[in-house]
Amino acid sequence: MSDYILELKDVVKTxxxxxxxxGVHFQLKKGEIHALMGENGAGKSTFIKVIIGVHQPDSGTMxxxxxxxxxxxxxxxxxxxxxxIYQHVTSFPDLxxxxxxxxxxxxxxxxxxxxxxxMRKRAKELIEPLSKEIDVNKPMGTLSVAAQQxxxxxxxxxRDARILIMDEPTASLTRNECLQLYRIAKDLRDKGVSIIxxxxxxxxxxxxxxxxxxxxxxxxVGTWDVDGITNQALVxxxxxxxxxxxxxxxxxxIGDVILEVxxxxxxxxxxxxxxxxxxxxxxxxxxxxxAGRTEVCQNIxxxxxxxxxxxxxxxxxxxxxxxxDALKLGIGLLPENRQTExxxxxxxxxxxxxxxxxxxxxxxxxxDVNAEMENAIQLCKKIQLKANDITAPPSxxxxxxxQKVVVAKxxxxxxxxLIMDEPTxxxxxxxxxxIYEIMNELACRGYAIIMxxxxxxxxxxxxxRIVVMKGGRVTAEFDDVKSTTQEMILEASLKERRxxx
Amino acid sequence: MPGSNYDRDLTxxxxxxxxxxxxxxxxxxxxxxxxxxxxxxxxxxxxxxQSGTIQSIINAGLDVSPLVLGMVxxxxxxxxxxxxxxxxxxxxxxTGLMMxxxxxWIIAVICGILICMxxxxxxxxxxxxxxxxxxxxxISTSMLYRGIVEIVLGENSLxxxxxxxxxxxxxxxxxxxLSMILFLIMGLIFCFILHRTTFGRKVYIVGNNPTCxxxxxxxxxxxxxxxxILMGFMAGIGSIFFIGRMGGGVSSSMGTGYEMTAIACxxxxxxxxxxxxxxxxxxxxxxxxxxxxxxxxGLLGVDPNSKKIFTGVILIITIxxxxxxxxxxxxxxxxxxxxxxxNIEALNDRTAEQIKELKQQLKAGKGDAASVNAKIAAxxxxxxxxxxxxxxxQKADAQKAKERYAK
Amino acid sequence: MKKVLSSRNTGLxxxxxxxxxxxxxxxxxxxxxxxxxxxxxxxxxxxLLAVGEFVIILTGGIDIxxxxxxxxxxxxxxxxxxxNPGVPGIVFxxxxxxxxxxxxxxxxxxxxxxxxxxxxxxxxxxxxxxGLAFVVSGGEWWFxxxxxxxxxxxxxxxxxxxxxxxxxxxxxxxxxxxxxGYTAPGRRIYAIGTSRESSAVAGIKEPTVTxxxxxxxxxxAGLAGMLNTANYAIGYYGMAEGFEMTAIAIxxxxxxxxxxxxxxxDGVAIGVIIMAVINSFISMIPxxxxxxxxxxxxxxxxxxxxxxxxxxxxxxxxxxxxxxLI
Lengths: 501, 407, 326
Prior knowledge:
Structural class of chain B: mainly alpha
CATH superfamily of the largest domain in chain A: P-loop containing nucleotide triphosphate hydrolases
Number of strands of chain A: 22
Helix content of chain B: over 70%
CATH class of the largest domain in chain A: Alpha Beta
CATH architecture of the largest domain in chain A: 3-Layer(aba) Sandwich
Strand order of the largest sheet of chain B: 1-4
Distance between the termini of chain A: 59 Å
Radius of gyration of chain B: 28 Å
Helix content of chain A: 25-40%
Distance between the termini of chain B: 59 Å
CATH class of the largest domain in chain B: Mainly Alpha
Oligomer: heterotrimer
Number of helices of chain B: 19
Radius of gyration of chain A: 24 Å
């Protein structure tokens, strides 16, 4: 009998030429909480999908209690008592909480019909210890993200899981909810359940885990006892290089305030958010996923309009009702999700680059395609795009190059303020560096840049000033980046809101 | 790859390649058109070479053509409009009623087209602003528009239309049918709009990725509105073609199924119903194919009702051809050849890639043929052996699982 | 109480009550047993089709070929029964089920396994089935004189004073209602309609579920075909044209979300009754029959628009609740 309940060796998984997992190892002891850490795009999510059978590894073996297993689908892993709680909740929003919990393992009466009464009762029993406020008869879609997360936990519990995988469960929870989750996780551990706990937050790890494994850029870095590794060593393992060398020298001169956001609120997303940004300055807007940063940017850019508060551009109050207004005023946005928001994957690169600025190329009532291509080539050369030619579709490019196309699209028109939402998410180190260089150059040209980022080293390395958000509110602002540490930001992004009487 | 990363040549290197041009979907449509003509010419040469046959085939098939042109734009958005035939009849009714009332024909015709544009605008409003699914919207507005015609006309029909209507449906200029000349002129204009203007580009962007369009400062609602109104305009033009072809009469039950023919032509022309994919040229050729096909079936003694079967089959087959893509072939292979085992699939894919690389090297003149071929054979053999082994393992695993969960 | 008031069905019942009061004022004698049974019998075919369409809409698809399927199956059973008067009706009843299942299987295969867009696919099969109906019938029309009584009994025969057609409709609504609400395959239909992505993660085989959903719809359309001819003793290839729209209208009226995953059988039942009342209205008032199409079209648009607005307000409410946490 093996010491480990679950063991993975040399697991490789590729998606269309991109290595999502490159020979990773993992060992889970019986009854332990094992933290799995790494930056965004390190391959953690793919890894759990391999464990539960959504993806099959290209090569490598998986041992369950020392025995080789192959999971062809999630049903196979469920039979083995493996359950997962995903980062992006994968629920059925139109179905009730009860049904979501029992999807795939319903309680039936002797005629083969669902026993809704019994299921509701059992669902209540499962949910009650977690939260008293969740009504099991409500559709899942009406619950908050945190409540949905709790339902997912209840679902895992209902399956008597031996191995429980939690993918960043604390990302969108409040402090109290986190504490509750810790308690639940510890209870489960004491009952003999082994837990893989994927997280960004050191706090989670220190609170819960006995051992920690780190992935970086799709590869395995190492496994340590939580007591046996220092914070710095762990950060280094995750980031993989000294922070200073990764970021280009800042040369821009910071001018006067160009964009002022005063006390804007949007119901359900954020409240009383204020900050400003100056010419030539890179302002980082950071915090945990779900803190409302993206929504703030979308409100500045006109995807949504704030309920209250005002936005002033160069001292004048502006009303931005749509991205068209924003672009006219000189505010650009690099969206967070390049696949769905930034690119038209099927159209050639040059058409993507000019999609926001095609009116420039109209000559005699028609589009001057040659001028359009010429312009796109100039821009793409500047950002060192690696592509066959300018008519290739973005879907043929790697993630980093796709992001460069979106950047080129932003550069195709003159802006004053540039909002970049997670500009380096899921792209490789080299591409990251060139994006930082572009940001720097733009800042030198007098652009004001608002960068949304969850990666603290990046925030510290690139920004001139840092604004931290938590739960839809600004919790801290750091003017002096040099004396700011990761811990300070972390603290601010976890800070409980002071109850205002 | 030669050259440094810093100065990459991004210009379009590949010029016109004949072999690629010849297998384009548009060219395949041309072949089909030619094929049908050859069949006709061979088997019914008596009819085919009679003067006026081809003209009458084209005249008979082109009354739907304005609808096709508009429908391409609608489908490119990823929407659909099944109310076009109803719009067409409603517009025709308005023109007819005004003519009956003694209003000058020019005003009557313009009002007919305007009413169609209003219908289109209403569809557009429901789809773009209320975010209603286009299918449901246009199914119900189709009932609504046709219902209005029923209410107004009942069992009656209108007969009073401008004389030149009939000319469009029935006359030729020299050897060329008038309807064909008009259709080709409109087709050219539509090609220009779709492929040469910002509006056309916006339609493609919205059709492919509406979210990205919004972020790029394109108003999705506006583009949708404009396209639906354009469709209405074309339905108005269509009413002129249709009534002309019908010999200058309109009643509430006429023109049923024209929307389906228009959609079928557009889809046959290579326009994807998922939006964003397709060009203007294909549907123009497809309209002619449809005209010749209908006529050919007629010659073969197939009555108009059974022709529906062919239309349906053609529609389904053309869409299937466009949807059978790499992913589906891959899935199919996975299911049949690789026993649903993704490990085997990955192994085979990797081997195929390695072999391809080796072959490319050989082509480039690196290495000698014999040793490379030996390598390829070895790779193939290894792959086959390993696949078999994986398959055995999978079977063993499945057996084990079965035993374990026997209860 | 608040819940009852805000529920969509309550609103529908309210509309129904108003309609009934109006009807009572306009046409006395409406509530006689005879009239009620008559109205239900005349709308039972719509109900059958609506239930089939309901199943499809729940998966997030749409089937506009059901009326053609009805005609196709109806013609075959009619023709066979008229040609072989000695064969008992049950044979044709079962035949209708089998043929309907085959029609549904074709749609289900194309949509489920070959991933065709439901609208376009059923558009194609709509043509095909209608054309086949013509081919089978050879353009012939069948009238009451030709029909065999044992065949007609399956629709107009009475048990406990109620025509068989109504019995069938009620039984099918209950059976399908139970199936959708209380069995695993039924719930899977809801699941794939509400989120395909989550279904995949939960190990639900979407193609298979889609396939049998279309088969159910086909069976109901096939049954409707046999019962329609038996009920009215008239059969020709063009029958029931446009019925698919009525079926969709009933579903949408009953609160079924056209995007899939949301809707209840009791809603469909109420939708059927409202549609029946409207139809009988139209038939009772002289000169109204030409209004039928326009009215139905307008009803669907209004119903979808109402669905849209209720959904939007629900989303707003959810945001407000979330806002309270911030």
